[in-house]
User: What shape does this take?
Amino acid sequence: MTNRRDALKCLGVGAGTLFTLSGGVFSAFDMAEARIEEVGTPLFLQISDTHIGFNKDANPDVIGTLNGTIDAVNALPSPPAFALHTGDVTHLSKASEFDTANQLLSRLKVSEMHVVPGEHDVTDGPGAEFFARFGKASDNRGYYSFDAKGVHFIALVNVMNFKPNGLGALGEDQLAWLKDDLTGRSASQPVVVFAHMPLWTVYEPWGWGTGEGEQIAALLRRFGSVTVLNGHIHQIVQKVEGNILFHTARSTAYPQPAAGVGSGPGPLLVPAGQLPGMLGVTMATPDRKRHLALADSTLA
Amino acid sequence: MTPRLFAFALLAITATGLHAAEAADVSVTIKNFDYSPMELNIAAGTTVVWKNMDGEPHTIASVDGMFRSPALDQNDSYSFTFNRPGVFKYICSIHPKMKATITVK
Assistant: This one.
């Protein structure tokens, strides 16, 4: 287990960050009207794939690594205003796992946490354990939107009602809702979309994508600054397409193999010393150019 | 408990009850993100028992919603008794690329 001192050092601003995506990728667009406030202060934290209940060799102590992550975030000199959890809160959708996860995550010093389900959270079907805890914000649909600090946030659910093609799916109702939600909105307002499975195709043979990905991207293209955040694949993969930045976060529980390596997208067993460097969170901070900059940090 | 879940619970109880009365179960092994066998032909009244050998959890979820297992951790099993003829496709609701079919005659 990583000791707390090391974790703090590496989550500290500017230290231990593997890379920082500056707003430069959006420089072709006029962001003068963007209303992101409080430049330089972390706006939100993305935490993902906590998999409470997992107990296999790839990480026998997922509670410990989550606690280490929370300690590190809480010790930041300027903590984020709120947190997004991009799903797989639990490993097996069990009530006891959700209870433990909630107890642990309640220690995060953030004003609120927005949670979308991963497929591991809803194996018991719609309207069950996940929704009993996190369904209120969305009237049990799971998808909803809100505004914070001038940024429009959209929570999507792409892990229910899978089709046999193996990709994530929004379904017609949710896609229609998304279209409505974006209609009439100023293109200069920064948009953050978050869901569990990647909203673009990372690797089709393992189902790492969303069937309606192209339709979703088409709805987002007119906006000057779009950040699409996902989890699911337990590693960082990113793509920039026009003014849309697609980014997946690490897990706090265990890594997964790179696309297509090995028999399937299961837990990746690595030497114990390497594990902390493969677990972590993502911080989003408005920068001096009033863009949203993402910084990934690990527990190493 | 929602009506839908309650219905599922009743179905599960029925399946378990019949299970005791049937002689030969048929096994499906889940390993390396595959169901084996992927195509299964059985007689009506047969109970199928799935066992997950992977370190990653899997489920057995019929495409038409007739049966749906909880998440099976490594070495967990789930059984369902097929009482009526038909072709039943199912997937893993965690890894929907995993597909298989049971034909009941």
